[in-house]
Records
---
Amino acid sequence: MTQWENLPEPRPDRPVQPVTPSWSAFTADPRVPANQHLRASDADRDVATRLVQQARAEGRLDAAEHDERALQAASARTLGELEPVVSDLMVASAAPGLAAGRPRAQVARVVTGWVGLAVLFNAIWLMTVLTTGHLLYYWPMWPMLGTGIPVMMTLFWSPSPEADARRRPPRRGETPQLPPAQEPPSDLR
């Protein structure tokens, strides 16, 4: 028996977990000048690294550029250092007419819910028409309209994930970030 026989077989590379390219994945938006001096967390560096890995897996980066950017992401100290690493990898994935950045699963869930209610309302109306034997007032149009308006608002006028991130309360252990216009004067810091 040679010394190399008991070594495990090499495993194929693990597939890259898909990442949704969004600035809201960072603890604070690196594009905002007031945030660029903030220290990057391990989670921020991880998001940037995963975006670079995904771009490599999709063929948008060659091996040398992937290695260079992965090293930059891993060694970044501030959010401002992460912004140039991933800024050109942020691809708009929303279809025209849909709210920018809205996850497809959320859009599908909203539309499926509305269709389910419409089918239910029409089934009740149809069963009532069939049991009475004559045509009745088509009342399902009103609840369908009432539930359809919020569906349309969700599809076309919802804020982007970046706006959602600005409105969300800070995560546990995260200090809230003031908008640039509301920062205290530098002599009070």
---
Amino acid sequence: MFLVIYDIGAERDPHGIRIRLVRALRRSGALQIQRSVWIMESMTPDLLRVIDEFRRAGGKVKISEWLPRSLGEVAPTNDHMRKAFLAVIGAEPLGEGWHVEISGLLGRIGYTVEVKPVSESAMVEYSKLIGKRLDCSAAEKSTSRLLDEAVLDDLDALVILNSGRTSQSGIVYVAQTLSNTKVLKGMTSLPVIQIESPGKPDSAVVVWNETGRALAEELSDELSMPVIYPSAEIRKITVNGSREIRQIQYAEVGDLIIVNGKEVGECLSDKVYVIAEGGRIIDIMGGRLFGKGKNVKLDSLRNSIIKTIPRDSKG
């Protein structure tokens, strides 16, 4: 990841080069940390062109590699304030009040907690609970992007609260979401854990990195949930010539198939495979591909977030 810091005096910017640079940064997928401070995965030709224009106009740009560290990692003692984000996926945990209970547990452990809904349904439900409308533009971003934006804040731990149809499907979904982050997946020093399906028989506390182990075990004791260390390789991709084939985990007959937030088909068996070629889905083995599913564009099945939902839960 690259860190970009820039500045230009107002007297040297009569033609709005600062605004053009900001737009180029956004087009490149960069994330803003503070005013005039951004991070990004790679430098695109378009961005490099605008940076060169910015410098020619008299602006200053500093680019360096970005290696984030939490305060807990660099502090010699553990007596500083600790801040945790409770990132909620879906409306169900909010409706059942689990965000309140888990925030309380984290508070007793010593964390200052901020609840962060990171999906559209969670935002809608949380807006109802707090009686305040949240930023609608955030709902248009992916959960992976919202997690990346969240961890750019000042925090010492990330706790993801989710409730999948089953614990296994919930873990697979979060695994896909984390693998599609750009910032978070590189922040190995930040404890990241998942509390999956609280209140259900198959609930669990999931450890997503080694630094999250201690917090996971502490919450596991308080919640009476087992700790799970998931396999690093959850998604299975087979390449056959120019085609990609990916099996859907935990499919059930009648489920709707969702790819990157778009409804693409339905399951006709419990063994379902999505087949893609040329950036589009061309078939679903063990299922039915909807006509509108053929129009969904994707970079790769490996980087796509695929899940199934019961048909009666739609909407």
